[in-house]
Structure formats: structure tokens, C-alpha cells
Amino acid sequence: MAGSHALVDLLRSWPLPPDTRAPEGAAATEFVRAAVRHGLAGFVAHAVGQVGWELPTDASALLRRESLTGAARVLQVKALLLRSLDALASEGVVPVLLKGYGLSRRLYPDPLQRATRDVDLLVSRHDVPTATRALSGLGLTVRASRDGKYAEADSHHIEMEGPAGLVELHFRALAGWGQALEGDALVARAAEGELEGRRVKWLRPEDEAVYLALHASNHLLQRMAWLFDLKLLAGHALDWARVVERAQGTELPLMVWYAWDAARRLLGATVPDTVLSALAPPVWQRILAERFFTEPRLVGAELVHSKPAWVAAKLLLAPKPTAMARYALRRLETAFREGR
């Protein structure tokens, strides 16, 4: 995994050149593969040029191919996003853009540099029927919820798919660990903005700092792009006292801590000590988090490839173990019913 460490070195030092030399040989190929695995091939291609790293010919060609392939995918998602915005605008709905192209446009040198696979839109609950009808006009159909009869408790979005791709229409910002981050308050606080001449809404910076951290932790930090997003966001003017207030208001502050702690520890994100202290979980969970979220394990995305380790991490790091246990039982019941 030597080449993978070079990815962390590059992200940690950005925008300055790393102290380490460019990877060579097999390490260079693994460096590129790690960038692809973590959704950052486009950005890494840009950063390698900016910091003056010279990769071997084969690795350089692979990075270029992967970055162009990733950019083409992002353009497809962007096209669906713009069509979705037009369809919603015709019904008077202005959504909040979550993650994806909208985030990349605001944080990255070029929005095509960060991988994205679908469109994530957040609307208030009362706008969901109207938004669903509008998006159906694009040839998108609603995919059955994986949460079965527990969809109201455990779902946070409606998945709508078609030939053009996938739109996740959120009525909650997030549901996970047996709990939820409701969306209506976020929508009410969201700021007006624009994208390609279309009206959109953006989460307030402090809400975004909490939401992105919760999303990353819900997926056990298995994509380095999520941590790098946080590092880039921390470079903007954040009211950290308000970040703490928003995080504590979710009743999930330790999930926010997991992501921001890893972003600072591994990638050098500028997070004040007072913020991490205010959000920190009990000592035993901090110790476990540092063991689950080591540099080699995150770069290798080890938890994705081990179901037992994934379940153990979810249970041990859960903010409320009883809520997580009930959620796990609901998922097992749903899986059993579908398997019959």
C-alpha cells in the first residue's frame, strides 16, 4: 500500500507541495488506483501537475484516462441535474443541492475533478409529491424502498431512476445509525443561489459542515473524497461555534467528530481544538475510532470489503447503541421478508 500513502501525502499538503517525492514503479500505479477508488482521479491529475510531481509514463497515462472518464461521468450527472432543476422550477420548487456537482463547483478548482454518480436534492416534506411528479416527467420512476415497511422510520430519500441516471430526492438530509437529520429546518435556513442560471439553494456553511461530516461517518469514512471535502470547506470562513451548536442540535455530535477528527488527523484540516473537544465521544469510542480510521485502513477502504468489520464498527461507534440495535433488527426483518 506504499503508493496509497502518497495519496494522503498529496491531500494533506495541498495546496503546498508534499515533502515526499512522487511515487515510482508499482507504487505509482497503486497511487493512481487509490485516487480512482476514492473519487479523486480528476483532482489528483490536477494536483500532480500543480505540485510538480512526475509520474512514470504508464501511471501518468492511467491517471489521465481515469480523470477524463470521471469527467465524462460528471458531465452526464450535471446534465441530469440541470434537467431536474428545470422540471422542478416549472412547478415552483427550488431544491437544496446536496453534495455532488454543486459542492464540487464551490470547493474544487474545477467541478469535473471530483467524482459524482447521482443527483442529490433536498426539498421540504410538503414539496415531495410535487417534486416527484415533476421528476417523473423526465422519464424517472420511483425505485422501491429498501427499508420496506420501515421506510418512514429509516429512509431519508426517494430514489428515482431512468435512462438519464439516478436522482435521490431527499425529504431528510440523512438517516442512519437508527436516527435521522430532518430536512425542513435545513431547507428553511438555506441560502438562495444559482447554478448555470437556475435558482438553487445551498446549505448554510455551518449546516454543510455538519451534514457532510454526518454523511461521511454514516458511510464509515470509506471514501477519502469526503474527508478532503471537509478540509476544503474548513478553508472557508466557518463560524465554528455555530458548527458545534448545529452538531449538538442533531443529537449526533460524535458522528460529526469522527469525520472532522479524521479530516484533521489525516489530511490536516484546520479544525479548532475546542470544536473537537465539544463534540468528542467517550474516550473508549475515540480510541476505537482511531483504530478503525487509520490511514492504511481508510485508503484501502477495508471496512467496505468486510461485512463483519462493518457491522462491528457501526455497533461500537454508534451514538446511541440501543437505537442502532433496533435499526439493525429492522433491517434484518426486512431482509428476511424479502428473502422469503
Structure description:
With 340 residues, the chain is of the alpha+beta class. It has 2 domains: 91-203, Beta Polymerase, domain 2 (2-Layer Sandwich), CATH 3.30.460.40; 204-340, no CATH class. 58% of the residues lie in helices and 11% in strands. The strands form 3 sheets. It has a 5-stranded mixed beta sheet. A two-stranded antiparallel ribbon has the order 6-7. It starts with a helix and ends with a helix. The relative contact order is 0.10.
Summarize the topology:
Layout lengths: L1 H12 L11 H13 L3 H11 L5 H33 L6 E2 L2 H8 L11 E4 L5 H9 L4 E2 L8 H4 L2 E6 L2 E6 L1 E5 L2 E4 L1 H6 L1 E5 L2 E5 L2 H14 L5 H11 L5 H10 L3 H15 L5 H7 L3 H10 L2 H5 L7 H11 L3 H19 L1
Parallel strand pairs: 2-5
Antiparallel strand pairs: 1-2, 3-4, 4-5, 6-7, 8-9
Name its key features.
single chain, Beta Polymerase, domain 2, 17 helices, 5-stranded mixed β-sheet, 340 residues, alpha+beta, two-stranded antiparallel sheet, 58% helix
Task: Describe this structure in a few short sentences.
The chain has 340 residues and is an alpha+beta fold. Helices cover 58% and strands 11% of the residues.
Instruction: Give me the strand/helix succession.
Output: HHHHEHEHEHEEEEHEEHHHHHHHHH
Reading side by side through the largest sheet, how are the strands ordered?
1-2-5-4-3
Oligomer: single chain
Counted by DSSP, the helix tally is: 17
